[in-house]
Fold these 2 entries.
Entry 1:
Amino acid sequence: MDDAELERSSEFAGVPDAFQRLWTPHRMVYIESNKHPVDTADPFCVAPTLSDEKALIVARGTTAYVLLNLFPYNSGHLLVCPYRHVAMYDEATTEELTEMGTLTQTAMRVLTEVARCEGFNIGMNQGRIAGAGVADHLHQHIVPRWSTDANFFPIIANTKALPQLLGEMREQLAQAWPADPK
């Protein structure tokens, strides 16, 4: 990364701070979508209607599927979603939850093989007040972790760099996904 991509606060007018800033203008789509919701379509209902490449879908099951997070914390950040539009964990069927669990296990194995990660953050934010970006559709995060990654939250680490493009990561994970993950 060259110095043109990083700006230090000591070069700004005003009071300097310790942060380095890595400009990520592509995140404005995410930020603006929360301010001015123009498209009310649920992205997790739309994704399965698109090609796997376009929707960044890694694997499809019977009641649930796996896709890359469009706004990842780390390279390989996956989401496991039921096809059915359901908001909360306690509203999902036993079949949906069972398949989400199986897909999560497979995702962990595939990420370990492909990305050589050393651990995972796995979790769900239930409801907008709990931090869910898409609160109306149940989804579970699988975030691969390495001893050398910055931190789970980019804010805490001051800088966040993702070393691999989403399309490349999707292709690698989809190719490594077993035909029968059981």
Entry 2:
Amino acid sequence: MHEIKSTAGLAKPEAYRALHTQLAAMLAGERDGLANTANMAALLFTALPGLNWAGFYFLRDGGLVLGPFQGKVACIRIPLGKGVCGTAAQRRETLVVPDVEKFPGHIACDHASRSEIVVPLIKDGRLLGVLDLDSPHLARFDADDAAALQAMVKLLLDGSDLGRLATG
């Protein structure tokens, strides 16, 4: 059993270093992608301040399908190229959206969400899905979040068998 250590009071770089260390410990010796994405969603949701949703979508049958998450009930299917998640997946690039209401075609699964960051899951050139974090605060995410979350996603991809969760 892993205990999530609080990052309260830490500056963002220190908080992400602590989270990276905790994620590495969670992944050690466990390759199951479903279990690892569930634990990563719980870690991020619990330890990062200002989130109202943290989770994964996996590429299946040409679109994104909901995976493990923490937060309110979410959209189940998102077409590639639609909303922040579908756009990040289609472009294969991390998207930081300071105000989701200004993002063309934003899909409002939770109307309380005001900002969002989406990191694609790409392994050996293959798109597997995305990590999605939402916040009820405008401009909650920035380039520092993007870099730290990309490093955590790399750790997840290197330490997990996520390929079986994606069929697209």
